[in-house]
Amino acid sequence: MLASPKTLEVMAIQEASLQRYQENLDSLLDTLKANPKKELILAPEVFLTGLDYEHMTTSAKFSASALKTLKKAVDTQILVLTVILQEGEEFVNQAVVIHKHKIVHRQEKCKLFRLGDEDLYFQAGKKKNIKPFEINGVNYAILICFELRFKDLWKQIEGADVVLVPALWGALRKKHLEILSKALAVMNQCYVLVANSANKNMAKSSALISPMGECVQDDKKSLIEAKVDFREIKKIRRYIVIE
User: Fold this and answer.
1) Nearest to 122 by CA among 63, 56, 199, 45
2) Structural domain tally of the chain?
3) CATH number at residue 235
4) What gap in Å lies between CA 200 and CA 117, rounded to an integer?
5) Is 49 a member of any domain?
6) First and final CA of the chain: distance in angstroms?
7) pLDDT tens by residue, 192-232
């Protein structure tokens, strides 16, 4: 296991997904190129295509092609996004972590949002696959949007230093997103990075929350830039021991 770094420069994208898929991919590639010093970049849920239920096959084909392009573009940075992919006759909403030109972690959304008809279009992933994973000495975990509401999943990802939440979270429940993400950071004594969509009727609220509940958030910005300080995690875990 590598020794964890002292800090990590992170960025959450807070932009709207456009109808033309290629424009979303171009925007993501431009963000990567323009921010080479950002070590980790998180995109909103299904940023490349949105939930385009009328064109699921097209969404999946584009996403598969886009991943090939993104793998070529991503070297030392870590890029995290979710994409619509087709597996047999089913479609899945899959979180993908790209680093050094490879997909180093995959995780399918297991808690589907019925109010948004996700259960009608997606096959749910397996709950057991939601667990911490390591990159360069840092333990990460991913909760995709609605999964943030399930306290049993919080228990399942204990020990993660940084929890990543790609989201497509509605404006009517904006406070829920903010409260839950802060509570998770405090409860699990970790950093929580949220990237939520800026589409119409979406909550925005993209943020980096520290283990003390301190928050970097600005709904007026399209990119939320912040720094993870791993010394803060060690300090609070020594100071307040939760068993």
Assistant:
1) 56
2) 1
3) 3.60.110.10
4) 18
5) yes
6) 24
7) 999 999 999 999 999 999 999 999 999 999 999 999 999 99
